[in-house]
Amino acid sequence: METFNDKIKRMIDANFNRTREGLRVVEDIARFVLDNKDATSKIKTLRSELATIEKNFDFTLSRETENDVGTSLSSNIEEKRANIFDIFKANTKRIEESLRVLEETFKTIDAVVSKKLKSMRYKTYTIEKELEVRLKKTYEQK
Question: Which domain holds residue 100?
């Protein structure tokens, strides 16, 4: 039987996954669409920081994808993206929101990790602004 602790571990696992997936999408946009080595490196570093944290708190065994009530839910906005800018915005928000969930949850587990996750969230805000400006310039030129 699943305990309350298992449910929290599932929530953490899901948000590690969301963060990692969003970072990969944004990293690939920085790398392949914008050819921005500096931003690509910053995002890659964030992914490495996340992996280091996740390695110490691996909750994969708590995963219950087949029983997750949210896997079949979606909204119209999730099912369509008009362009690369929409993909970028959706994924930066995904990263920020999931880092916030991790940050809050880790306040009950490890305050030091919570502060690292908070720092990563603020770094993401900065990267988002920087790349959004570049993406808008790219689209205005076309």
Answer: 4-63+81-140
